[in-house]
Amino acid sequence: MATTRIGVIGGSGLYQIDGLQGAEWVSVDSPWGAPSDQILTGTLEGVPMAFLPRHGRGHVHAPSEVPYRANIDALKRLGVTDVISVSACGSFREEMAPGHFVIVDQFIDRTRARPGSFFGTGCVAHVSIAHPTCALLSTAAEESARAAGITVHRGGTYLAMEGPQFSTLAESRMYRDQWGADVIGMTNMPEARLAREAELCYASVAMVTDYDSWHPDHGEVDIATIVATLGANADNARALLRGLPSRLGPGRAPCPHGCDRALDHAILTAPEHRDPALVARLDAVAGRVL
Ligand SMILES: CSC[C@H]1O[C@H](OP(=O)(O)O)[C@H](O)[C@@H]1O
Ligand SMILES: Nc1ncnc2[nH]cnc12
């Protein structure tokens, strides 16, 4: 049986985690550029874990400039099998209140200025993202959150916007009333797409910080409101993460939802027409099938 290795991508407010045995910040070279930061590696209850702050320590990278491909490639290169994305988000639902966690299971992608795939001319691939998150990993995250006493909502649609400005009032109302989005953030796309292309199980834990701008009693979202909630949310996220190793276990069976086999039959470019340079860059992401 393969070995579980948990990758954590920490969002706004979550720039480090504690409690890892043998903790060490390591640099990982990627053919897709430099990852957001070094990656904190170690083990938790005997299960290897790798933590990468999405915006870098000190919050250096804007959402449009996060090196999403390098981040996913670097985690894959470290042998990560399961990626937990932790993100701050605004809420479009009264019942999804600041401080609550939402285990996202769908996305609407409104980003427009980010490379969205590892593949392209010279190696074309089409993976399914109809179900963009892994239900098994999401269940582990949900149960761990509940055990930590966090109010958690299972399932929700995350609207990924480009940013960095927040939404207009018209957009906020449209996403909520017409499009049926539940939460909003700026980073889970293309991250989730790339995780699927890299055959990684991916679960998204969205931590509510605000009601965006639609709520008549809360006015418009501002960064002060968000920062006021980030600290407590980050503490809860660390508690959730501590409960993951015992739920996932050290040995890893094939994913029952097929996340780890997403590239089976996905590559359309005939072997003799593949670009050797691109194929070389895909060594970690797609080496299993190339
Ligand atoms: C801190 S406000 C906006 C910022 O926070 C979220 O970041 P992340 O998803 O990495 O937690 C949001 O997507 C924006 O990037
Ligand atoms: N309202 C909001 N819109 C976009 N990203 C966010 N991150 C936290 N709150 C947000």
From TrEMBL:
Recorded hits in Pfam families, A to Z, give: PNP_UDP_1
User: What Enzyme Commission number(s) appear in the record?
Assistant: 2.4.2.28
Cellular component GO terms held in the UniProt record: cytosol
Q: Pinpoint the Nucleoside phosphorylase domain residues.
A: 5-242
Which residues are listed for substrate binding in this entry? Answer: M186, D210, Y211, D212
Decide whether keyword Ion transport is in the record: no
Task: Tell me the Gene Ontology biological-process terms attached to this UniProt entry.
Answer: L-methionine salvage from methylthioadenosine; purine ribonucleoside salvage
Q: Which reaction does it catalyse?
A: S-methyl-5'-thioadenosine + phosphate = 5-(methylsulfanyl)-alpha-D-ribose 1-phosphate + adenine
Q: Where does phosphate bind?
A: S12, R54, H55, S87, A88, T187
Keywords assigned by UniProt?
Glycosyltransferase, Purine salvage, Transferase
Which chain positions carry the site (Important for substrate specificity)? S167, I223
State any single GO MF term: S-methyl-5-thioadenosine phosphorylase activity
Q: Which domain of life is it from?
A: Bacteria
Which pathway is recorded for this entry? Answer: Amino-acid biosynthesis; L-methionine biosynthesis via salvage pathway; S-methyl-5-thio-alpha-D-ribose 1-phosphate from S-methyl-5'-thioadenosine (phosphorylase route): step 1/1
Gene3D superfamilies linked? Nucleoside phosphorylase domain
Its biological purpose: Catalyzes the reversible phosphorylation of S-methyl-5'-thioadenosine (MTA) to adenine and 5-methylthioribose-1-phosphate. Involved in the breakdown of MTA, a major by-product of polyamine biosynthesis. Responsible for the first step in the methionine salvage pathway after MTA has been generated from S-adenosylmethionine. Has broad substrate specificity with 6-aminopurine nucleosides as preferred substrates.
Similarity field = Belongs to the PNP/MTAP phosphorylase family. MTAP subfamily.
According to the record's subunit comment, the protein's assembly and interactions are: Homohexamer. Dimer of a homotrimer.
Query: How is this protein named in the record?
Result: S-methyl-5'-thioadenosine phosphorylase
The organism of origin for this protein: Cribrihabitans marinus
Taxonomic lineage per UniProt?
A: Bacteria, Pseudomonadati, Pseudomonadota, Alphaproteobacteria, Rhodobacterales
Q: Which gene encodes it?
A: mtnP
